Amino acid sequence: MSPAPKTSFLTRIRKATPEFHPSEKRLADAIVHFPGQLAGYTATEIAKLAGVSNATVTRFVRKIGYASFEEARQAVRAEQVAGTALFRVGGDGTPSQGLVARHLAQCHGNLEQSLAALDEAEIAGLVTAMVAARRLWVVGFRAGQGFARYLAWQVMQVRSDVATLPRDGETLAESLAGIGPGDCVIVFALRRPPRQLDQVLRHVTGCGADVALIGDLTELGAGPVRWTLPCSTTGAGALFDHVGVMAICGLLAAAAIERSGPAGRERLSAIEAIHDSLDEI
């Protein structure tokens, strides 16, 4: 699922900087602050913004390893889709008109797309496994870590043996070593994942655990997992919008609490009793 290692657009510019002529350096300075602009501008427009000639733009893109301006622009668009925030930032730092309305509309769209894509039977099967599994592991890298912690925190109210991975101070191997048959593993696969994501998925499925994948990656359904829950995270600005991911977390947690039955209620009661005895809340 994770992309093959490649040289990013900005890395190409930095490596080629010593070879630039003064006009090419001026163009580089204009581009590196707002590289996302390259995706929507023509070569002539970029040249005008930087105060250089079209010939300078042509030389520039060739020096950083692209055959043409169009190839460079497609590379920038690919990095926008992949989730690089710098490539999604606007030009002058001024908030655009209708900011709240635009974000609200995008949140509604992501929420609707994320929940509409869910299958009732698949959710029921996953929730059953979350409650009945020997151990429940919730895995999240980068942006996914916060959602992993939230989901684990909610579910641990009605069952024990819930862990969030990776844990602070541990290597991946140390974190994954305890997973085995009879376990349920939920993995958050959100853009831009670490390159080890594929290896992690192969490892946990090979351990005999039942695995669920929640995320927005294009190749999400290609993994060797039992459940796949796609979500939409298209952003109205520089960042991705994760309202759909949170909605799926809330749905799974609420369903797991309901599915836990008498055993879950007994654990909830025990937690509240301890709260009272500690005068904690």
TrEMBL record:
It comes from the Bacteria. GO terms for molecular function: carbohydrate derivative binding; DNA binding; DNA-binding transcription factor activity. InterPro entries: Homeodomain-like_sf (IPR009057), HTH_RpiR (IPR000281), RpiR-like (IPR047640), SIS_dom (IPR001347), SIS_dom_sf (IPR046348), WH-like_DNA-bd_sf (IPR036388). GO terms for biological process: carbohydrate derivative metabolic process. Residues 7-83 form the HTH rpiR-type domain. PANTHER family: GLUCOKINASE (PTHR30514), RPIR-FAMILY TRANSCRIPTIONAL REGULATOR (PTHR30514:SF18). This is RpiR family transcriptional regulator.
